[in-house]
Design a protein that fits this description.
The chain has eleven helices and eleven strands. With 323 residues, it is of the alpha/beta class. The strands form two sheets. It has a seven-stranded mixed sheet, with helices on both faces. A four-stranded parallel sheet has the order 7-8-6-9, with helices on both faces. Helix 1 runs parallel beside helix 9, helix 5 crosses helix 6 and helix 7 crosses helix 8. The structure holds 6-O-phosphono-beta-D-fructofuranose. 6-O-phosphono-beta-D-fructofuranose binds next to loops.
């Protein structure tokens, strides 16, 4: 058993609904295991600058249902330099931190690995709406974000049907199409354009719309992933080619906020508790992940060397169901 007495927790990168549930779990499981738990404000930026305060059972009361992150988050330029990493490590030691729990995405994990290389024990918890962490089937915030998108699709569908229009909806996901493919299927899209797949605008968008119209469709939905972009230009092109009035909606940051779903709250709680368990058991430099449907963990270097590809079955299914 490692003699861990004090741990820090921070959220980093883009916020995601459910991050608070993870912070709560780390704090409560930590205190349950007789650890001191310190909250670090504004991610690595806060670590560098010593924005660090001891947390209590009560400091995480009434947050499980809140979107965003009570610890706030940032993307730190200074931390991306070797000097910044050293400074962050020194500050962690000033506060007596034996380990750090980092809740964030791929970039945050790379930062955590840098810290591990100068001697800090780090545990990563995947928190991003994008679901683009290679080692994990699931990331905190993904389910809530998809439900937000689906709610928007259902609303857009109402007005699209009433006016017999086409809608092009751009959804987040950075370089990944996970939100797009799932929401496109759940929302009944005619076409889903993903960064992982080359596309031909005439074959993949115009043709299904015209075919659909000839079969009696009354409205049309095209989902474009952020990693492809260009929703406004795509909408213009559709209107020119089909003469169907077409509107673009870029959903934007609404996808990052809101009350986390039960899936996000429970998964975040399990992940936060496992992060603490690993530290209590003396484990070093691990990433918590969902693998084969279970919350588990793996070595940080192994995790960061993995790649993730889009689910081809979902891509195929989306084409069949768009008929
Ligand atoms: O990673 C989450 C995410 O919302 C991505 O989907 C998006 O590309 C990015 O963050 C936007 O980042 P920022 O908050 O820096 O604009």
């Amino acid at each position: 058993m490692a003699n861990i007495q004090a741990i820090g927790v921070l959220t980093s990168g883009g916020d995601a609904p459910g991050m608070n549930a993870a912070v709560r779990a780390v704090v409560r499981a930590g205190i349950y295991n007789n650890l001191k738990v310190y909250g670090i404000q504004k991610g690595y930026e806060g670590l560098l600058n010593g924005y660090i305060e001891e947390m209590t059972i009560r400091s995480v009361g009434d947050i499980i249902q809140k979107g965003g992150t009570i610890l706030q988050t940032a993307r730190s330029k200074e931390f991306s330099t070797p000097a910044g990493v050293e400074k962050a490590y020194t500050m962690a030691k000033v506060f007596g931190l034996d380990a750090l729990v980092v809740i964030g995405g791929d970039g945050s994990f790379r930062g955590a690995r840098e810290l591990s290389q100068v001697g800090m024990n780090v545990i990563g918890i995947p928190g991003t709406i994008d679901n683009d962490i290679a080692c994990s089937e699931y990331t905190i915030g993904y389910d809530t974000a998809m439900n937000t998108v689906l709610d928007a699709i259902d609303k857009i569908r109402d007005t699209s049907y009433s006016h017999e229009r086409c809608s092009v909806l751009e959804v987040m996901g950075r370089h990944a199409g996970w939100i797009a493919i799932n929401c496109g299927i759940a929302g009944g899209a005619e076409a889903i354009i993903l960064p992982e797949k080359k596309f031909d605008i005439d074959k993949d968008i115009i043709l299904p719309i015209i075919d659909g119209r000839n079969r009696g469709k009354k409205h049309y939905l095209v989902i474009v992933a952020e990693g492809v972009g260009g929703a406004v230009e795509i909408a213009k092109y559709i209107e020119e080619k089909t003469q169907i009035v077409t509107r673009a909606t870029i959903l934007g940051y609404i996808q990052r906020g809101g009350t986390p779903t039960i899936k996000d709250r429970v998964t975040a709680s399990q992940m936060g508790a496992l992060a603490v368990k690993l530290l209590v058991e003396g484990k070093q430099n691990r990433i918590v992940a969902v693998r084969n449907g279970r919350v588990t963990d793996l070595d940080i270097n192994e995790a960061l060397n993995m790649t993730k590809t889009i689910d081809e079955d979902l891509v195929e299914l989306s084409k069949v169901l768009a008929l």
